[in-house]
């Protein structure tokens, strides 16, 4: 049987294992909470912050470590072999490939498409980190959640440790709770936490842990990065341990679709780097920051709102 994860709060032993791994991997936690005062219309009326999860680690940055941490530590020992899925610019595969290389774990990456003649910088890194790269057709890749296909992969690679695309499952939702805990320790209660949405685990984790915290109600704002109204909501709902109503997804800032950009978005990403020293890319973080900028300009937040933009790290989308 393939390993399926049940949502559990980490026990003391798990926390010790996580701390040990963070030391071995040089994870810098907690990530900084940075006050942010951009020269955006209307921003002066709000209290803005950036949760700099991109600074957790140079490679295993952002929500990648949050989502993987509990998956790796909920058993007595680390796995010998991990299989996971992603595209040619996958932040998830990049972080997981480096992590496995550092920990001596065999890693097999099921990559959508054939890049053998033109590997991306991300795939070049994976090769350097001794990842077993398996290029699969888009048709085969569509089976990545099919139980029979996963069982066949488990037999093929002699491992039951298969992590979904994007690292998103209920163990990932549990790991995202670290972010909420850190925010509670770093600042006064917040009104809004904003994050990009693609596979749903980060938004589900933020919504669940904020709802369970007992602190002042915090609204979780998702900025959809792909054309998937209804689809993204279904992903989040499937990952929530229990229903909650403190979240919603804004689908008006996905632009031309997933991993597609235009001149406005690319220029905005450059501006964030040059004017504010905040590196963002056009797939996830760029759409988050630009979407929030436009929502502020439209007057969608009440004066005095305390809002955190969660920088989920991962800059593979900015590499040529």
Summarize the structure.
The protein is of the alpha/beta class and 320 residues long.
Report on this structure.
The protein has 320 residues and is an alpha/beta fold. It has two domains: 20-58 and 169-318, 3-Layer(aba) Sandwich (Rossmann fold), CATH 3.40.50; 80-160, 3-Layer(aba) Sandwich (Rossmann fold), CATH 3.40.50. It has eleven helices and nine strands. The chain has helices at residues 12-25, 63-73, 91-103, 121-128, 138-141, 147-157, 170-186, 201-213, 231-239, 263-276, 285-297, and strands at residues 33-36, 47-52, 81-86, 106-112, 132-136, 192-197, 219-224, 247-250, 306-311. A six-stranded mixed beta sheet has the order 1-2-9-6-7-8. A three-stranded parallel beta sheet has the order 3-4-5. α4 links the parallel β4 (106-112) and β5. α1 (12-25) crosses α2 (63-73), α7 (170-186) crosses α8 (201-213) and α8 (201-213) packs across α9. It is globular and about 55 Å long. 44% of the residues are buried. Mean pLDDT is 93; it is low at 1-8.
CATH architecture verdict of the largest domain: 3-Layer(aba) Sandwich
* Rounded mean pLDDT score: 93
CATH topology description of the largest domain: Rossmann fold
Number of helices: 11
Low-confidence stretches: 1-8
CATH class of the largest domain: Alpha Beta
Number of domains: 2
Strands across the major sheet, in which order? 1-2-9-6-7-8
Which word captures the global form?
globular
Radius of gyration: 19 Å
The major pleated sheet works out as: 6 strands, mixed
Strand proportion, as a percent range, falls in 15-25%
Class based on secondary structure composition and strand pairing: alpha/beta
- The tally of strands reads 9
What order do the helices and strands follow?
HEEHEHEHEHHHEHEHEHHE
Termini separation:
39 Å
The share of residues in helices is 25-40%
